[in-house]
Amino acid sequence: xxxxxxxxxxxxxxxxxxxxxxxxxxxxxxxxxxxxxxxxxxxxxxxxxxxxxxxxxxxxxxxxxxxxxxxxxxxxxxxxxxxxxxxxxxxxxxxxxxxxxxxxxxxxxxxxxxxxxxxxxxxxxxxxxxxxxxxxxxxxxxxxxxxxxxxxxxxxxxxxxxxxxxxxxxxxxxxxxxxxxxxxxxxxxxxxxxxxxxxxxxxxxxxxxxxxxxxxxxxxxxxxxxxxxxxxxxxxxxxxxxxxxxxxxxxxxxxxxxxxxxxxxxxxxxxxxxxxxxxxxxxxxxxxxxxxxxxxx
Amino acid sequence: xxxxxxxxxxxxxxxxxxxxxxxxxxxxxxxxxxxxxxxxxxxxxxxxxxxxxxxxxxxxxxxxxxxxxxxxxxxxxxxxxxxxxxxxxxxxxxxxxxxxxxxxxxxxxxxxxxxxxxxxxxxxxxxxxxxxxxxxxxxxxxxxxxxxxxxxxxxxxxxxxxxxxxxxxxxxxxxxxxxxxxxxxxxxxxxxxxxxxxxxxxxxxxxxxxxxxxxxxxxx
Lengths: 297, 220
What we know:
The complex is a heterodimer.
Chain A: H1 2-56, E1 58-63, H2 69-80, E2 85-91, H3 93-104, E3 122-127, H4 134-144, E4 150-154, H5 157-199, H6 201-209, H7 214-251, H8 269-296
Antiparallel strand pairs in A: 1-3, 1-4, 2-3
Helix pairs in contact in A: 1-5, 1-7, 1-8, 5-8, 7-8
Chain B: E1 2-11, E2 15-25, E3 30-34, H1 41-48, E4 56-61, E5 64-65, H2 74-79, E6 81-85, H3 96-106, H4 111-124, H5 140-152, E7 158-162, H6 170-185, E8 189-194, H7 197-200, E9 206-211, E10 214-219
Parallel strand pairs in B: 3-8, 3-9, 6-7, 7-8
Antiparallel strand pairs in B: 1-2, 1-4, 4-5, 9-10
Helix pairs in contact in B: 3-4, 4-5, 5-6
């Protein structure tokens, strides 16, 4: 117990004594984590945006005017048997016309003289996210367009292709940038901590001389690194949050209104927690590397 | 207490620091290790507290074979040995008593016991009144006495001093030597390495002369 208390006290005293060197470590960690945090916020929001889009994504099947009730039932059954389909809604000719009129608002006169309702009835299919790939959509629409009573099948083909490419790119980019930034911050942090360890080489030497065990020499540095890491990550989160609120205020919007469709949020709590943990990890690992190198020398 | 059997120490590129050292020091002895700079005195001391390993030969310290000691057993060996240096090695960023406190904290001794120990060793070296001062406010002789006090914190059986008076004028040097003599009378074995031949003259202590890594004279 006594030892544990000493290790804690020593770590705190060391942080206090380390002065500018310690602040430099915390600052470096904070800067690295701000960059990582910005990236996380951007990808997080883009991810939310994309899943919002995917949620709304649908395939529309236009029906022939002369479709019989049996043909419609058969078609619905056929669609329900498709694994890709999450759900469907039927829009009759009359409903479709109503909808169209609503959209024209005030220019209904354009429709005058058409006489017969020209708008076809349709089925809107919502598609499971896993099947929103160009290949499976082509397969689905290809087979459905051959069913009797189907006039045409439409979906944003080009759009799906592009979105898929963008998502792939985003994932790859997120992975590589995150990895590179993680490595870079670990290097910088371990270097900064090594400077502090170096400045305390005398203390380490004396500790060895008077018979301190290896664990006892390392533990306070390890703890110090962890505390500095958490402080750095915490500072980064604080600054990011302040910047986030300031940006929202500048844009005169409330959270969730950016892009108009319910995204534009700060880091999710689990990401924030993960960043603090990563800060502790980076700090601990950084000081472990530095002290290890020094003890071997 | 200490036994060297055919100890050789060779550094990289065939630099022979110590050649066939055979030596025995009894418990409670006070020994001067004398020789010019580079003779191998410091290497010999460092072998004793396991800071260097011999290239060949055996070294027994207090019944333990230092040459074959596993790394995790080193701390317990060092707790039984006090070491002091010419440059004192005091930490400049903390007071005298905090410098001494480092030892009991590192050894995990409860703070009440540790504080009592600090008071005891400071009294022994005559610096009780300067406990709260920073090292740089003390004279060289006083700083060396603090270093000695620190070495005494763990009640060592063996005290090693590497040029303990090298930076001090002759009055202060005599002070430090007197203090080491006092500590010796309480039973602590002491080995002092020095290049200063004059210091040893007429002191009536055992003197081992070392040159070029070899013991050339052992005068009781």
